[in-house]
Specification:
The protein contains nine helices and 14 strands. Helix content is 31%, strand content 22%.
Length: 288
């Protein structure tokens, strides 16, 4: 397996980022609207100049990258731009001429799985069907790095899960690196190896998904009257709703209990629970 390459150092309006990826690793950027996910993609693509630092992919600066290195990167931007007057067959033949490593089997394999007719014209397709075509064209480029910005746009839950499973098997069997951004967290735990959670220009967490889900917990307890739970000291987004206190932390139950007791808060019935990726995301970024 090749050594990890630095994917991003520095960014416009993004503080302290440093992403690293390697073959068969699928990092994913999660964040609310406006937190910098698409800005990150634009920097990775060379469309934006970092205000500080460098954006390096495969060891080369994205803005001065050699064409043969850039050919190893496949990009899906938000909105899924396509030539709508073409049919499924026509657009595949058109794209194939620009990519020496073109893999038509990857394209038609996904089209067959999604039951898209080869002679169907793109202009007559739904938004979800157009998204499927765009995803197939990305896979067929046979790139070493796939950068997918909000790839699930327009896909219903069934097709989204189908594509996630197809992408997972494709990336593993072909030893590809996939960099994803998304608003939708469901179905992703089985796909991504590492996650980067952003919140309005800064990175809150960057770690393997397994480590995040194994260490980040939601804690609840019954507070006394008029109790205010302080944030900080490893406690995320404390709140009291309907007489039940809730907070999130990477710390152990004993450590959390100690922090609360030092603040004069009684928490004898403190209870911790593990989280799925969506709940962990909400715990780190807040519900609103």
């Amino acid at each position: 397996m090749p050594q990890p390459h630095p994917l991003l150092r520095g960014a416009a309006d993004i503080q302290r980022p440093e992403f690293r990826g390697s073959a068969r690793a699928d990092p994913r950027t999660l964040g609310k609207n406006g937190t910098g996910k698409t800005t990150t993609i634009n920097i990775l693509s060379g469309y934006l100049q970092p205000r500080a630092g460098q954006c390096l992919i495969f060891g080369e600066d994205i803005r001065t990258m050699r064409p043969e290195t850039r050919a190893r990167i496949a990009l899906l931007i938000e909105g899924h731009v396509q030539y709508a007057f073409m049919t499924i067959e026509q657009i595949e033949r058109f794209y194939a001429r620009f990519y020496p490593r073109w893999n038509r089997d990857a394209y038609y394999g996904l089209m067959e799985m999604l039951k898209v007719a080869p002679r169907q014209r793109i202009s007559r397709m739904s938004c979800g069907q157009r998204s499927q075509v765009a995803l197939g064209l990305i896979l067929a480029q046979n790139a070493d790095l796939l950068v997918l910005d909000d790839f699930s746009m327009g896909l219903d839950s069934g097709y989204r899960r189908l594509f996630v499973e197809y992408l997972r098997d494709y990336a593993q069997s072909e030893e590809k690196t996939v960099f994803l951004t998304s608003h939708i967290i469901q179905d992703m735990e089985k796909l991504v190896d590492d996650c980067i959670i952003m919140d309005y220009g800064s990175i809150l967490v960057q770690m393997p998904v397994g480590e995040l889900l194994g260490t980040f917990r939601r804690y609840t307890f019954t507070p006394g009257a008029d109790v205010t739970i302080p944030a900080g000291d490893g406690l995320y987004h404390p709140s009291v709703v309907n007489g039940r206190a809730e907070l999130y932390s990477f710390d152990s139950p004993a450590t959390v209990q100690g922090v609360l007791e030092r603040a004069g808060i009684v928490c004898s019935d403190l209870r911790g629970e593990t989280l799925n990726l969506e709940d962990a995301f909400i715990g780190l970024t807040g519900k609103y």
